[in-house]
Amino acid sequence: MTTLDFTPAPGAAPFTRMVFAQARAEVRATLRNGEQLALTLVLPVLLLTGFSMMPLIDVGGSRVDFLTPGVLALAVMSTAFTGQAIATGFERRYGVLKRLGATPLSRAGLMLAKTAAVVAVEVIQAVVIVAVGLALGWRPHGSFLSAALLIVVGTAAFSGLGLLMAGTLRAEATLAAANLVYLVLLGAGGVVFPLSKFPEGMRPVLEILPISALTGGLRSVLAGGAALPLVPLAVLAAWAVLSLGLVSRTFRWE
Amino acid sequence: MDSPAVEIIDLVKRYGGTTAVDGLTLRAERGAVTAVLGPNGAGKTSTVEICEGFRVADAGTVRVLGLAPALPELRPRVGVMLQAGGVPPAMRCAEWLRLVSRFYARPLDADALLARLGLTEHVRTPYRRLSGGQQQRLSLAAAVVGRPELVFLDEPTAGLDPQARHACWDLVGELRGAGVSVVLTTHHMDEAERLADHVAIIDRGRVVAEGSPASLTGAERQLRFRARPGLALEELLNALPAGSAAKESPAGHYIIEGLVGPELLGTVTAWCASEGVTADDLRIERRTLEDVFLELTGRELR
């Protein structure tokens, strides 16, 4: 039998090593979770290929050019909002957040690790969606940096909303609500169905939804070649500030 | 010079209208095993979770290694085993321990620790598929993997089979040998007697007795024997030194308490002879912590 030396030798690992270890564990957990993978990868790809190839919607131009930015926005929402809300809600319920709180990994470190894991999964999603889009004849325009900035601010907004749910509701309620919100925003956020198809009176409301801002912003950059759409960026930033501010006040770790 | 591992003075914790901890005072020395013994609902977990920084005291003072419990610099120095859960259900056994080990500067080897606790066969098993005892052992491993100075173990052997229980006891002994301070809660008196240098018996949120297991149980001993039921004990009591007690419980089983020594033994056997009774299975026993608890609170420990 191996001899173990239990003589106390306490000490925290370097901050970056702790965050990296936690982020890696979270990415692995996401990729291993079948339901989450269906939501983050399979559904966006199905929507992209299905609606690109079949003339079910009239977008007044190339369908794949219209759809790819919307599906990228959907992918961001599925990971930063739905996936993160459900996973964190259950971590709270199973006492995982509590247990991690007893390790040297600080709460700030844990949140940083969660963010890094979300970004890593988004990169995988973007690579797959862009590849499928290109194969379907997508011709992106505009600035990569503008698109990336929209995605970063959008990620912050959706993470804030997801954590707001996860930190206050019961895990089961978070599961149900996060999926419901995902479906509603998928239908009403301009992902697949253009906002111009909705009644005139509803549009101002729909346009301030975070998903519409991200979809519209990405679309005006990648399809319209706009430099940096300031209105959608401001809408996303407002959601991010509001939701993350509420999270810092309401989040319950236990 | 060194502050104690844990120092608690007049601790109070309330949940709504219920007072879970009611003026509890306790000191756990460094390098020793301290057992907090009491029935369910006595306030053990509340006390430990305040020391771990999870809960905030309503009143009183708590110092862990001389510091306020919530301070971040305590996290690497203190190992924690929760009463249940704390691990993502889909996480594999070895993955969890390796993850936790990466938060520390000089951790123990995760695989060697799993082997030590008999979990080698289950390294790839998701947490939710482990048996209750295996889950407990994984939590115990995670509490010590960072080589802490002090560990809190909340009911470490609850739900363990006897073999796993002894493995856990051996580990606690080894920790103590290596100079680690251990604070554990339990409602098993044999666990407290066997492991602890210092036992605090708590009931209704207060310490009702404390000391070494021997000092709590050893001062008074019992003489027990079996004989035919219904013997008249008054005469025996008159012959025994003042302060002795004699009772029949259950029928046919006699317990004599007091200064149990050769003299008392002689008095009892002489009395038996005069009554024409043969005392069977006559023996002298120490009281157990269970007896102590029953005496102090009038209730059973479990």
Automatic annotation (TrEMBL), chain A:
Entry's transmembrane regions: 37-57, 69-90, 111-138, 144-166, 173-195, 226-247
Family named by the database record: Belongs to the ABC-2 integral membrane protein family.
GO molecular function (one): ABC-type transporter activity
Keywords, in A-Z order: Antibiotic resistance, Cell membrane, Membrane, Transmembrane, Transmembrane helix, Transport
Top-level taxon of origin: Bacteria
Transmembrane helix among keywords: yes
Protein name per Swiss-Prot or TrEMBL: Transport permease protein
GO annotations of cellular component type: ATP-binding cassette (ABC) transporter complex
Pfam families: ABC2_membrane
Major localization listed first in the record, in broad terms: membrane
GO BP: any one term: response to antibiotic
Cellular compartments annotated: Cell membrane; Membrane
Source species taxonomy: Bacteria, Bacillati, Actinomycetota, Actinomycetes, Streptosporangiales
PROSITE patterns: ABC_TM2
Membrane topology classification: Multi-pass membrane protein
Domain ABC transmembrane type-2: 31-254
From TrEMBL, chain B:
PANTHER family cross-referenced by the UniProt entry: ABC TRANSPORTER ATP-BINDING PROTEIN
Location in the cell: Cell membrane
Main location: membrane
UniProt KW keywords: Antibiotic resistance, ATP-binding, Cell membrane, Membrane, Nucleotide-binding, Translocase, Transport
Listed transmembrane segments: none
Any GO CC annotation of this UniProt entry: plasma membrane
Matches recorded under Pfam families: ABC_tran (PF00005)
Record domain ABC transporter: where: 6-229
One Gene Ontology molecular-function label: ATP binding
Keyword Nucleotide-binding assigned: yes
Membrane protein topology class: Peripheral membrane protein
Coiled coil spans: none
InterPro entries: AAA+_ATPase (IPR003593), ABC_transporter-like_ATP-bd (IPR003439), ABC_transporter-like_CS (IPR017871), ABC_transporter_ATP-binding (IPR050763), P-loop_NTPase (IPR027417)
The protein's name in its UniProt record: ABC transporter ATP-binding protein
